[in-house]
Amino acid sequence: MQLLSTVQDMTNEKLAVVIRGDSAEQAEQTGAACYAGGVKVLEVTFTVDGAENVIRRLKQRFSDAIVGAGTVLDAETARIAILAGAAFIVSPGFDKQTALLCNRYQVPYLPGCMTITEMITAMEYGAQVVKLFPGGTFGPPFLSAVKGPLPHVNIMPSGGITVDNTAEWLEAGAVMVGVGGDMTKGAKNGDFDAVTAEARRFMQAAGGVQ
Ligand SMILES: O=C(O)C(=O)C[C@H](O)[C@H](O)COP(=O)(O)O
């Protein structure tokens, strides 16, 4: 039940951080700073050169973290991520070949979806959680409205999530949120303590919602 238990562990955490960075080293430091602030779900994006090594390193350093891959555009990249130990795969759009590959290895695939049809197709291809991307463009009322006809769809909004709207998204029915820049912006100036402080604020915002 590896796939289902990973999904359960992720949604229990309510929040994933989306890690970008100018280098593998910066991405690793960003992930470590978020972990220090209480974030357990770490999504290392494949816009980072050497992302697979960052996944390996973060897994070695933080054995109770759930480390996965983001910005995975194709099955080839998904396989590289899975071989590096990625616990989950996230993409900005929905790709059928990636879905099939992830199912083959029983690794959860969270594809980006913007329409009801994409969400239904993603579910038909086995997605337990779909990513509403870019979430901020749609907003929490869109998510609530989708859950009218599709009460069984599990949605993780990502893109434009802030510490101030995190609780609102969860109250609207999001199973978890994906957070990038608003948590990690300090990393650009090397201020990883600021990243840890933001991570703490986010986890408080997410933890306040049952
Ligand atoms: O490419 C993927 O797989 C992603 O997960 C994209 C992320 O959702 C955003 O990059 C996060 O966006 P911000 O929180 O606005 O910085």
UniProtKB/TrEMBL annotation:
UniProt keyword list: Carbohydrate metabolism, Lyase
GO terms for MF: (R,S)-4-hydroxy-2-oxoglutarate aldolase activity; 2-dehydro-3-deoxy-phosphogluconate aldolase activity
EC number: 4.1.2.14, 4.1.3.16
Enzyme class: lyase
Keyword hit for Lyase: yes
Pathway annotation from the record: Carbohydrate acid metabolism
Keyword Lyase tagged: yes
Record note on quaternary structure: Homotrimer.
Family: Belongs to the KHG/KDPG aldolase family.
Classification via PANTHER family: 2-DEHYDRO-3-DEOXY-6-PHOSPHOGALACTONATE ALDOLASE-RELATED, 2-KETO-3-DEOXY-6-PHOSPHOGLUCONATE ALDOLASE
NCBIfam families named in the record: eda, PRK06552.1
Protein's recorded name: Bifunctional 2-keto-4-hydroxyglutarate aldolase/2-keto-3-deoxy-6-phosphogluconate aldolase
